Amino acid sequence: SPASIIPAIRYDRDRISGDRGDDFDPTRWSWGELHEILTGWADLWAEEAGRERTSPPLEFMRGHILWAAHNEGSDWEQWRTEMKRALHTAKREAGLLPKRLPSPCVHCGGVAVQDWADKQLRPYDDGLADEVRCLGCGLTWDTPAHFGQVSKDHLRHLPSRHPDALVTLTEAAMVWPDVPAKTWSTWASRAELPDPAGWDERGRPQYRVGDLDALAERRVDTNRRGRRAG
Q1: Residues contacting residue 113 through CB under 8 Å, at least 6 positions apart
Q2: What percent of the chain has pLDDT above 90?
């Protein structure tokens, strides 16, 4: 079997950069390790197919895709997984990982991004593409402004339409714009927030919209009583 670090590092297509840089991580594949992985797979396929490999690893594998897809000896599913990670590594080293937007896709909850390059990894002349796309469902928006407005409208209707939806406190500030950001922090420090109903891919707690809405409504009622008393 070719060298592999997949058991040690789970490939996650949503591990992307917020800008063109990326923090150092000693567990990442280097260019040298990437070449070793690709060479290992090409040699495995050549051995299993009973052929001599006389071309570079990528060229050899491109010429044997159909064979690999129909032969168990190719370890097809593991190969596909590692090629995704190889592509991720290549994009990272070239500074082409997509830029992640703060709000998730309103359709599926997936990660929304802007790209630095086209599908052939050719960088755009003007930097970031205007188009926003979801890594989950593939939905696209013409511009970040369009995506932002759709996201804002969706979030503000969550309490009435989707009370069981989950949001982070950052997203809660957009769902309830009349509640100051400091108030959410105060509720958190006083343990007045409901128990988290989940966690997002960044490890941030997520809360049920209906539970947070009840908390926001209590704040409104308290403020009204205070004004009447005054």
Answers
A1: 16, 98, 99, 100, 101, 132, 133, 134, 135
A2: 46
**Residue 120 within any structural domain of the chain:** no
- Tally of domains in the chain: 2
| 116 located within any domain | no
**Is 65 a domain residue?**
yes
Tens digit of each residue's pLDDT (9 = 90 or more) over 35-65: 899 999 999 999 999 999 999 999 999 999 9
Kindly report the pTM of this predicted structure: 0.56
Measured CA to CA in angstroms, residue 31 lies from 25, 90, 140, 172, 205 at distances of 14, 8, 32, 41, 35
195 in a domain, yes or no?
yes
Strand order in the sheet with 198-199: 166-167, 205-208, 198-199
